[in-house]
Amino acid sequence: MKDRFANRTLAVCAFACLGLTTGIASAQQGASMPGMDMNSSSAAEASGSTPAFKAADHKMMQHMQAPSYTGDADKDFVAHMIPHHQGAIDMAEVELKYGKDPEIKKLARNIVKAQKEEIALMQRWQAKHGGK
């Protein structure tokens, strides 16, 4: 019984590893083609939302890297969460501009409202605690 279980486990692991190495090889092939983004389709690139989402992502990542760490968990949390929340607002605004599904647009409106309120709270906290 142990041998059958071990053989099945080995077979599953081998299959998973084969799939993983195949995926890695595919990713490497895509990476080796300059100027080609293998993760996007021409339809996605033609949509105005794709560059808008990419810009929002880029802006958020830049601003999240900007604050230096102070060693104060509270200050560091707030300093990094503000751009994270702003990124959520920026992405929600892209959805509001380009999205079509009423339920998702409602979600986006709720995200904008909630994240703005939380940013304001964090900024007030920063002002009281000498941080930014």
TrEMBL record:
Q: Which residues form the signal peptide?
A: 1-27
Q: Which UniProt keywords are present, listed alphabetically?
A: Signal
List the InterPro entries hit by this protein, alphabetically: DUF305_CopM-like (IPR005183), Ferritin-like (IPR012347)
Give the Gene3D superfamilies listed for this entry.
Answer: 1.20.1260.10
**Pfam families from the UniProt entry:** DUF305 (PF03713)
**Segment Disordered: which positions?**
29-51
* Alphabetized PANTHER family for the sequence: SLL0788 PROTEIN
The protein here is known as DUF305 domain-containing protein
Q: Which organism is it from?
A: Paraburkholderia phymatum (strain DSM 17167 / CIP 108236 / LMG 21445 / STM815)
